[in-house]
Amino acid sequence: MSEISRADVEHLAKLAHISMTDEELTTMAGELDVIVDSVKKVSEAVDAEVPATSHPLPLTNVFRRDEVGEVFTAEQALSNAPDAEDGRFKVPAILDEE
Amino acid sequence: MTETLPDAAPLSFQDALEQFDPVLGFEVHVELNTATKMFSAAPNAFGDEPNTNVSPVCLGLPGALPVVNEKAVESAIRLGLALNCSIAESCRFARKQYFYPDTPKNWQTSQYDEPIAHDGHLDVELDDGEIFRVEIERAHMEEDAGKLTHQGGSGRIQGADSSLVDYNRAGVPLIEIVTKPIVGAGSRAPEIARAYVSAVRDVVKALDISDARMERGNVRCDANVSLMPKGSSTFGTRSETKNVNSMRAVEHAVTFEIRRHAGVLTAGGSIVQETRHWNEDTRTTSSGRPKSDADDYRYFPEPDLVPIVSSPEWIEELRSTLPEPPAERRRRLREAWGYSDAEFRDVVAAGLLDEIEETVASGASPATARKWWMGEISRLANARDVEPTALGVQSATIIELSGLIDEGRINDKIARQVLEFHLDGEGSPAEIVSARGLEVVSDDGALTAAVEKAMAENPDVVEKVAGGKLKAIGALIGPVMKETRGQADAGKVREIVMEKLGVS
């Protein structure tokens, strides 16, 4: 039974601002479903006693002292920007949100 | 389906409160004053040239790895403790994903299911001294977003052609404080709203974890309002008014939302759950976007940052650095100084508690400290268009000036001039008094001569005084002051006149 519906993919695509054709949505739904099914095998191997792991490394409290380090110049920061103005990144206006 | 009636006229505040009980909730974002950002060593600074305080982490460049600022975590724990919260033994960061150019990574690093602090309270002092307890749901760490400037159109996003992005603010450490629903506020809801934000600002200032300047956005408030019919205990649908960034605006925004909700509800409509914008000019809110798909943030644990574990030892060490709670401090100082309620309120409103406390600690009487800070220093600061604290007046200067007055060497008026000369760099008050020859004329010869001249020039006044109208002496003091360039001791002038005329 398919877990990932075409509607799910369409919703995600909308959230990520990725435009997809009908055909791509159907294909992607099928492919994502296979991936989810494969990952599901993990849950067969563990029982309810095993807590979900968000961080596999046995590390905590990796901190940095509050000391200023290197930064880019504005020119460096903007060097890969498709468009810039007044030392700032220029992006198309995004409507419907604020 | 019920009509929403968004255009129903707001009810008067009084009418609204007769029918409904307001429920409030606040999300206050506090920008920390750390030297660097939350996850990178780029400077956390205000007002620099655009995109000059950015690192690969701030720009979300591929492969850039965030590292947590230890001071920001300490600030979060200290704030949590000051808000009487429990500090999580272990907590982690999460990605809050949304697609908007103010965040170059397309997610904001925040905390979701495991905030660093939770379940606290803050006692808020209202105008009449009553204490209202606001329950705190959680305080969590996150990062600020970049600053967008919309081009074209009206400058607002609607109608803009493009936006310019400055990422200097992206990644600046924030702590978001979320209250539990505040019920039972009744007609005092707007006042409680203002007092709560004010209390949060006091706390972060006392902790010295934020510059706490609301006009710069160091403290930002989102205000949630909903209404329930009197007698009901089921919360209504809430609206969330974003970025209400002054204490007065918080008060007005809550007032307006209560009136607007009541207008819609009594007209038979229903409230839409949405974010709203605060319009300072009209003191109204306007509809933003409805809660919708856009709020599908798909949080998941941030894989690039390992959990934070707060040991009891660390927490206790940080607890020992907490300042006296601001409300307690105010109560203590009010009692110690013996000011009237109005006097004390003015001092608090002027933000001069620290200065007066220091001046009193240096040996001035509370009355003298208040007289100088609230009087002449504030007046001079106003004339020079700076904050009183920015004048750099030292407690020692105030004590020296008031000493000179007490010794009768200068009068109040001269003392005010001396302060001005002092601020202009002419030296200590005593140096100025002697260099400029400002000492009150008390040697009898010079003063007597001036009095005699004034009496000769004002025979009618002399006649009145001689006839027993002692009040008329005042008319002679002006001419004597003029003659002595303001350096006469008025009491002494009186004595001489009375002695000469043989009246008492």
Structural commentary:
The complex is a heterodimer of chains A (98) and B (504). Chain A is mainly alpha-helical. Chain A has a domain at 1-45: Histone, subunit A (Orthogonal Bundle), CATH 1.10.20.60. Helices cover 39% and strands 9% of the residues of chain A. Chain A has helices at 6-15, 22-45, 74-77, and strands at 63-64, 84-85, 88-92. In chain A, strands 2-3 form a two-stranded antiparallel ribbon. In chain A, strand 2 and strand 3 (88-92) form a beta hairpin. In chain A, helix 1 (6-15) crosses helix 2. The longest helix of chain A has 24 residues, at 22-45. Chain B is of the alpha+beta class and 504 residues long. Chain B has three domains: 13-292 and 306-313, no CATH class; 326-435, no CATH class; 444-501, Arc Repressor Mutant, subunit A, CATH 1.10.10. Chain B has 16 helices and 17 strands. Chain B has helices at 13-19, 70-82, 189-207, 247-266, 312-319, 326-337, 341-350, 353-361, 366-383, 395-406, 412-423, 429-435, 444-457, 459-466, 474-483, 490-501; strands at 20-31, 68-69, 86-87, 90-91, 94-97, 107-110, 117-125, 131-143, 147-151, 162-166, 173-179, 219-229, 239-242, 274-279, 284-290, 300-301, 308-309. In chain B, the strands form four sheets. In chain B, strands 3-7-8-11-1-12-13-14-15 form a nine-stranded mixed β-sheet. In chain B, helix 1 (13-19) packs across helix 4. The radius of gyration of chain B is 30 Å and the shape is elongated. The N and C termini of chain B lie far apart (90 Å). The interface between A and B is large, with 40 and 59 residues. Strand 3 of chain A pairs antiparallel with strand 10 of chain B, so a sheet runs across the interface.
